[in-house]
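Protein chain data
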Amino acid sequence: MLPVLQLNLLRLCFRTAYVVSTTGIAMLFPYFNQVLGVLGALNFWPLAIYFPVEMYFVQKKIGPWTRKWIVLRTFSFICFLVTVVGLIGSLEGLISAKFS
C-alpha cells in the first residue's frame, strides 16, 4: 500500500549541512535578510521575467508590435519597475539596519 521510500544519503547530508550553515550565517551576520532581499531583487526580473519572455518570443516567432508582443513587453516592463522598487526598498532596509 505504501510507496517505496528511496533515501539518498548524500542529498540528505548536503541539505542538512546547507540549512545549518545558512542558519549559522544568519545568526552571525545581522543583516542577512536585507542582503537576501537585495540579491532577490536583483535576480527577480532577469531570471523570472525577461529571459523567459525573450525565449518565448524566439520559440513562437512572435513578430514585433503584435498584440501578444505588446502585452508581454508591457508585462515585462511593469515587472521591471516592481523589481527596481523592490531593490530600492531592500537597499534602504540594508542601509537603515546598518546605521541603527
